[in-house]
Structure formats: C-alpha cells, structure tokens
Design brief:
conserved putative lor/sdh protein from methanococcus maripaludis s2 fold; alpha+beta; eight-stranded antiparallel beta sheet
Amino acid sequence: MRKNRSLAVVVLALPLLAGACGSGSGADGEAGPRPVSVTHLESTNTDLIELTPKAAQRLDVQTAPVRADADGSKRIRIPYAAVLYDPDGQTWTYTSPRSRVYTREDIVVDHVAGGTAILKKGPPPGAQVVTVGATELWGVVYGGIHED
C-alpha cells in the first residue's frame, strides 16, 4: 500500500514539476515563450534574470526593502532570509531593480540579530532583496546544484 501511495505522489507531482520548469511548449506542442531570459551584464560577474509573468507567478518570488541601520551607522539591514552563502562561505543576495527582474549582488555581513542581517556592504537602502525564491533564481542561471 505504501509503494502505491508513493507512486501516486510522484505521478501527481510530475505535471507540476514539468510546468514549473517551463518546457516552453504549450498543450498543443507548439513552442511558447521561454519562461526566463538570462543576460550577462558586461564587466561584472553577474547576470540579469527576467521572468515572464507566468514564471513569476509560479515561482512566487517575494522581496523586502533594504533598510538603513537604526544606529545611524553606514550599515544596512536586510531580512536574514535574503542572505545566501556559496560553498566558500561568501555571502550574496538577489536584488530586484524592477518587477520580475533580478540580479545577484555580493554582500558583507557584519552580524545577524534574530531574523535580520546587518551588512557592512550591500545594496542601498530602499533596494528590494529577494526573501523567497532566490534558490530557484540561482538554479535558472547555474542549472541546479551538482555535488563534487
């Protein structure tokens, strides 16, 4: 019985996974618009990611504003959920300069207090940082996680 239930979950999940991946094909097999475009930004080490409205709806990427630190220092605050770490321990975040457009930005974390990261370096106050969906954006650019 347990095997059948697991099979049913997989069978039911496949259409959702295929849709989320955005195969680019409509129900009639015709090629549709790509759900995402990635453009390398000249003289940088990052890319500009732009989602179609449907892809943005499926991924449900959410953002929050960068805030100035309350103590009057030059440090800034972002939700800790917006902080990402690479395998070498470097920190970064995705910013959203406009709706459905995202770019990766290196940050330097001073410390974490509760659910807030206080940064020494990062995007300016008022900028939007991705708090939900950053790993999906990363996967769009880098094609997923591969273990060594």
